[in-house]
Amino acid sequence: MPVSGGGLISGVAAAIKLTTPGVRVIGVEPELAADAQASLRAGTRTPWPVADTYRTIADGLRNVCVGVLPFEHLQAYVDDIVTVSEQEIRDTVAVLARRGRLVAEPSGAVATAAYLHRADELGGRVFAAVVSGGNVEPTLLSELLAA
C-alpha cells in the first residue's frame, strides 16, 4: 500500500486485519520521503523537512509527516513500511504501462515497485499491490516509457 498522510493505508489495513488477521500489511514509501517508515520504527511521529520530501518523483507521497490518527492505525495494523528508490518507481511506472496497460502515477506505482524490486523484504508468498492514481504528466509518462 502506498503511504502518504496515512489515511488510505490506515483504513485498508484496519479492514484487512479485522477480517483476515493473518494477512501482513506492508506500506511503501519512496526512499526520499520515508517519514511514515521512520515514524513507525521510532514509535513516534517523525516529521521530515519539506526540502527532503520534495525530491521524490512520487509527488502524491511528499507528505512531511503521517497524520496523528492514521499513525495510531499504522501502529495497530501495519506490519512494516518499506521504501523504494526513484529508479525503481520510474521502472515500475513503465512496467505497469507496458505489461499491465495501466497508467499509474509514480505515487500509485510504489506498492508494485516494492513487489518487483524488494520482494525479499516483504515476506509471504501471495501478494496484492494497490495501484492508485493516474495523474501522470504525459511528458513524464513519455520519458519513463522511452527509458
Summarize the structure.
The chain has 147 residues and is mostly helical. It has helices at residues 7-19, 35-42, 50-53, 68-77, 86-100, 110-122, 138-146; strands at 26-30, 80-84.
Could you characterize what this model shows?
- The radius of gyration is 15 Å and the shape is globular.
- With 147 residues, the chain is mainly alpha-helical.
- The relative contact order is 0.19.
- Helix 1 runs parallel beside helix 4 and helix 5 crosses helix 6.
What distinguishing features does this structure have?
two-stranded parallel ribbon, mainly alpha, 7 helices, 147 residues, globular
Strand content of the residues, in percent? 5-15%
Structural class: mainly alpha
Task: List how many beta strands DSSP finds.
Answer: 2
Order of helices and strands: HEHHHEHHH
N-end to C-end Cα span = 26 Å
Largest sheet: 2 strands, parallel
Helix content: 40-55%
Topology diagram in text:
Elements: H1 7-19, E1 26-30, H2 35-42, H3 50-53, H4 68-77, E2 80-84, H5 86-100, H6 110-122, H7 138-146
Parallel strand pairs: 1-2
Helix pairs in contact: 1-4, 5-6
